[in-house]
Structures are given as structure tokens and as C-alpha cells.
Amino acid sequence: MNRIFTCKNDAETAFYIESRMAEYQDRGGSFTSPGTVSDYLRILVHYIKHIRPAAEHNMDSMLKLMGASYKEKGYRTPFWAIIRESAAANPTDELFYKARNVEREITNEDLDEIFSFMEYELLKDPDNKESEGFLGTLAVCRVKYQQSKVRNIRMKERKHKGEKREQPVFLAECERFAKEYTPERIKAYLDRFILGQDESKEVLSTAVYNHLLRILHPEEKLLKTNVLMVGPSGCGKTEIIRRLSELLPLPVVITDFSGIVATPWKGRNKEEALLNLYIKAGKDLELTECGIVFCDEFDKVIPAKLYSKGGDINQELQGQLLGMFEGTDIDVPLQDKSSADSIIMDTSNILFVCAGAFEGLEKIARKDYVKSGIGFGSEVEKDENFEMTGMHLKTEHLMEYGMKPELAGRLSTVTVLRKLDRDMMRRVLTEPEDSIISRYERELLIDDGVKLTLSDGALDVITDRVMAMSIGARGLNSVVREILSEVLFEVPSMTGVKEVLITEGAARLEDKATYL
């Protein structure tokens, strides 16, 4: 079998492997899936001959790759991760491109059969000292493989002929949900909690509905529609996702992407978001691979930050995110980077929603919008009337901002959220279901049977204080909490109090609340 490394090309290698496999089967050996086994061996040899140095073009390397995990840059990398890295570095290589399908198809049963096949090949010449040494290597590698086969090789249970695989419970729940909730009904649910931002609520409602359809009808090969949300702090980006997470029958996680760096650089890596999703899904991998990841503060990964040895770590991170968003298999460490415990997660059916303020992006879009005017007067008029929406943002604008073209192309749907003006902020304070004020009303009523009342003047003061903070609706809770802190402390100890009135003076922290 060591002669395999003298084959002149891939076709000759394939012929040699298939001839050896045919002889093995004639002698009583068997393969559950001979085509998959042949492809696997071809890819393995191809990798050694085209990527590894000449000194490693031997049976010893082949056996070690079959059974071992390799240390690379301080973290453990199984065989398939090495092949995926090779495919990324050689995008036109046909065999590396094919490797992804082989990875999906191969099972632990196939690998067990391959070890037996290799043992047969080595035992054919018992007097060969070199073969004797390889047999020792084979035994060691086989033990290592057995110890970690679930981690290194994706286990896929084959269906027996005529056997119908039982549908996972979460898919049945998704089916029921899709029948009950159209995009309009999903938006109607969001309307109960979030005022305004109709464009974004419609976009997200449609995106999650289509996400469910992709999961339920994989044979239709529906397009994946990752979403980019652009809007200032406190305008409702996170709240939309939070409310969707309460409604949907799929796991949804929110991960702060500020501070995320490229793998394997020291710090928080993109795999953190996938691990959070895995935990949220109750460590059910199949459910995890259909979930939704909300990448908050996503604009923070775009500006270039040079590291000391040269290069752009953010460009490297964007390249890695490209594969994750489009769909690839990613090794997700279950603990720290030095741990060998990991899972291989397919992101093809994970919906990614990215959000950030993207300060300066509106200026880029405005400049392009104004240029489309005719004459000086038209430009002035267009500049004054400009209000950025998702329709205004183009891939070119994101590229000018600093996003890689390929990554911008994977965020196929863009929506813009508007900054809350004073009137909208005043409404947000009291009108939505589960508003900030209603939460404190419930707290006092449930625990102490006390009614909470705020005067119009008090509501105006709260609105003005929040607007002055320039962080949008995020400031509402801190301001209201400060005003009510004394009330929440005193009321539980009081008797005979039926109502608490917050006047304008109390809202300004100049007077005490009135107890009635």
C-alpha cells in the first residue's frame, strides 16, 4: 500500500485504491459504503502529497492522520478541520472541494472498516520489516481513534432500507408554528411590544418565517437570508430579537461581538456564539444547527485593528465569519481552547442576524444618494430630505465602510432602524405591552397591592432625562429605577398605602413620592 505515494496523478491513485479494495473484498473483507471509503482514502493521500512535505509522503503519515488529532497553534484540530483549512487555501482543488460531502457521509463504521482494510494490506507481507513497523503504528492510531472517534468523525446513522426516520420533536413544533404564524402574524406579535420600526419588524418576521420553511423543506433548497440591522443604540434592535426568541420554537442567542477576534488568536472567538447556541438548545446538536444567532455590536468587528506582527486581524475574522454565515462545519470547543473536547457544528441552517450602529455609514449612503441628483439645487434638496432606509444601503456602501465584499454579500437582507425622537420615546415609556412603567406597576401591585401613578409632568421629565443620555430606550429603566428606588424600599414596610403618586417634582428628584 505504500506504493500509493508513487502514483503520478489523482486518477492513478483512485485506480490503485479501488483495485486494492476489490482484492480485499474478494478475500472476504467488506465495506458498508465502498464509494465513501474510496473517496476518503483519495482525499487523505491527496492531502499528504499536496500539502505535507516530501518526508511525510509515507504510510506512517497516512495512519497517523486516520487515528490522531493534531496540535496546531495551541488548540486541537481533528482531521476534517485540517482538510477544511486546506480547501479554504485551495478553492479550485476538486478533491478538497469534494471533501465536505465525504465528511458528511462517512461514519465511524466506515472508519472501523478502513482500519481493518489497512491491517489486511500490511499483513500481506509479514516478512517486511517496514510493514511490521507500520502495524505497530496502526495499533496505536487505532486505539487513539477509538478513544475519540465521536469527536473526530461526524457520526451519521444510516437508515435501513424502508426504515422511516422519526421526525425530531422540534421539527413538529416548527411545522405547527409555520401553519399558525405567517410573517404578518409574527409582526403583529412584535407590534404588541415594540412601537414603530415597521420596516425592520417586517424584515425580521419574513426572515424567521423563511428560516422555518428552509428547515421544514430542505429538498426545496430555499435561499438563506442572513440579516443586517443598522441603527443607533437603544432603537429596538436587541428587543426585536428578544421578543422573537420568546415566540419561536427554535433556540435564539444574543452574543456581543465587540471584542471578538479571529480564531485562534487569544481572546473571545466566533465559536463562542455557536457554543452559546448549543447550550441554549440543551446540547441537542440537531436543534442547535437550526437555531438563530444574533450578533450584537457587529460593527465592532469591521474597523481594522493591526496587531503587532503585522496583518489585519479584523480582515482575518471577517474571512472566517464569511464561511460561518454561508454554511460550513466548524469545530466548537466545549471548554477552553486547550481542551480536546469539541463538537463539529454545521452552520448551513443557522440564521445569523447581525446588528450595530455603524456610525458613518449613513454619511456614505447620503453622499451616494445626493450624487444621483441633477443640478446644484437638486442636490441640496435631496440632502435635506434624506432619511436612510434599507433600500438606500448597497453592498458598495458596506464595502466602503470596511466590510469585505464577500461578507457583505452574505448579509443579503439589510434593514435600518430609526433613532427614537422625543414623541416616540414618550410613547415607548407607557404604551407597549410590558413597558417599563407597566413592569413597576405590576411589581408594586403584586407584592404590596399598591397602585403606581405617574403624572404627565413626571412622564415628560423621565422622557427628557432619557433623551439627554443619548443611548435611546436603554436609558429608560435606569432613570425610572432611580426615581422609584425609595418607593420600592419603603412601601413593603408600610400599611394602609393604596397608591403611590409620582409628581413632576418627584421625577426631578426634588420631592418625595406621595403616598395615598
Descriptive terms for the model:
Rossmann fold; 5-stranded parallel sheet; elongated; 3-stranded mixed sheet; Helicase, Ruva Protein, domain 3; 516 residues; alpha/beta
Could you list the spans in which at least 5 consecutive residues all have pLDDT below 50? 68-77, 149-163, 304-311, 374-381
Share of helix among residues? 40-55%
Structurally, the number of domains stands at 3
Query: How big is the Rg?
Result: 30 Å
> What's the main sheet like?
5 strands, parallel
Describe the structure.
- The chain has 516 residues and is an alpha/beta fold.
- It has three domains: 2-152; 169-416, P-loop containing nucleotide triphosphate hydrolases (Rossmann fold), CATH 3.40.50; 422-515, Orthogonal Bundle (Helicase, Ruva Protein, domain 3).
- It is built from 23 helices and 14 strands.
- The protein has helices at residues 10-26, 34-51, 59-67, 79-89, 94-105, 108-123, 129-152, 169-180, 183-191, 198-216, 237-247, 271-280, 285-288, 313-326, 361-371, 376-385, 395-401, 405-410, 422-430, 436-448, 456-469, 475-490, 504-507; strands at residues 70-72, 75-77, 227-230, 252-256, 260-261, 268-269, 292-296, 329-333, 342-346, 351-356, 413-416, 451-454, 499-502, 514-515.
- It has a five-stranded parallel β-sheet, sandwiched between helices.
- β8 and β9 (342-346) form a beta hairpin.
- α1 (10-26) packs across α2 (34-51) and α15 (361-371) packs antiparallel against α16 (376-385).
- The longest helix has 24 residues, at 129-152.
- The N and C termini lie far apart (92 Å).
- The model is unreliable at 68-77, 149-163, 304-311 and 374-381 (pLDDT under 50).
